[in-house]
Amino acid sequence: MGHGGGGALSGELTRHLFTPAYGNETLGGLGDSAVLPLPGARLAFSTDSFVVRPLFFPGGSIGDLAVNGTVNDLAMSGARAAYLSCAFILEEGVGLPVVGRIADAIGAAAAAAGVVIATGDTKVVEAGHGDGVYVNTSGIGLVPDGVDIRPQRAVPGDVVIVSGPIGLHGIAIMSVREGLEFGVEVESDTAPLGSLVEAMLAVTRDVHVLRDPTRGGLGTALNEIAAASGTGVALVERHVPVPEAVAGACGFLGLDPLYVANEGRLVAFVPRTEADAVLAAMRAHPLGTGAAVIGECVAEHPGMVVSRTGLGGTRVIDLPLGEQLPRIC
After folding, report:
1. Which intervals hold domain PurM-like N-terminal (predicted)?
2. What's the 3-state SS for the chain?
3. What pLDDT, in 10s, does the model give residues 154-211?
4. Scanning 2, 62, 139, 162, which has the fewest C-beta atoms within 10 Å of its C-beta?
5. Is the pTM of this model over 0.70?
6. Which domains are present in the chain?
């Protein structure tokens, strides 16, 4: 299970097994999506599989995640998603009303994100060989001229911005899965981020890095960017927006909010000269009203993320071995 959690074990699996087997420079970039040069254009291409349990949760479903997850992976390259494929793997015995409800959610999410479900596939496996419904989506979109967004572009002096409160999706899943109550219902933040990225790029094309901190949360995303760029990240922990309900749930469950999954948030690395304008554009967008500066990129401790705590000390935000909450997307 740890190898599918987006942490250190996932990275080892990718670097030491898949990347050598496939062996090409395009895959070597290891971004949220691949950017493919074509005559007169650059195409962003991404694929993702969704095995979340339960299938329906406060604020969304596996259908919403399947669309938004792939749309967001494309957006992290600066691309506006245009077309998606959608494949279902169904377990024998799952009710058709369940499948229909998920299909309706996919259709509604695609319409909201402005993408077309252009092709798909359906397979059925025997009872006991699946978990109801799995969904795979792939997507393509065009990267605008002058946009070059990838983790290797982070440089010392970049300002680190998160688009809103973190940890909502992972805690929403856990509350339903374990039947826990935290005094208030926590809803997933799942949302398509393409229009938010467009608003940021309208201010400046010089956005260095974008990443949606899904599996492994914000802490994992920052570690991946630090490692890819060879720079350090200095985080100010008290500036990270953690909702009170998420903080309370994490305290009760023994989790660190920095590693809890999100499905409608992004983290951006932008030049200091552009940071104020980008932050204002984000806060003016419905999906970025809670945007906050949480740190900066530094020359010290290259490849590491170090956080200044609320007590004035520091701690290393390391790459987790596996995942705090499995099967959350």
Report:
1. 32-143
2. CHHHCCCHHHHHHHHHHHHHHHCCHHHHCCCCCEEEEECCEEEEEEEEEECCCCCEECCEEHHHHHHHHHHHHHHCCCCEEEEEEEEEEEECCCCHHHHHHHHHHHHHHHHHHCCEEEEEEEEEECCCCCCCEEEEEEEEEECCCCCCCCHHHCCCCCEEEECCCCCHHHHHHHHHHCCCCCCCCCCCCCCCCHHHHHHHHHHCCCCCEEECCCCCHHHHHHHHHHHHHCCEEEEEHHHCCCCHHHHHHHHHHCCCHHHCCCCCCCEEEECHHHHHHHHHHHHCCCCCCCCEEEEEEECCCCCCEEEECCCCCEEECCCCCCCCCCCCC
3. 999 999 999 999 999 999 998 888 777 666 789 999 999 999 999 999 999 999 999 9
4. 2
5. yes
6. 33-142 (3.30.1330.10), 151-316 (3.90.650.10)
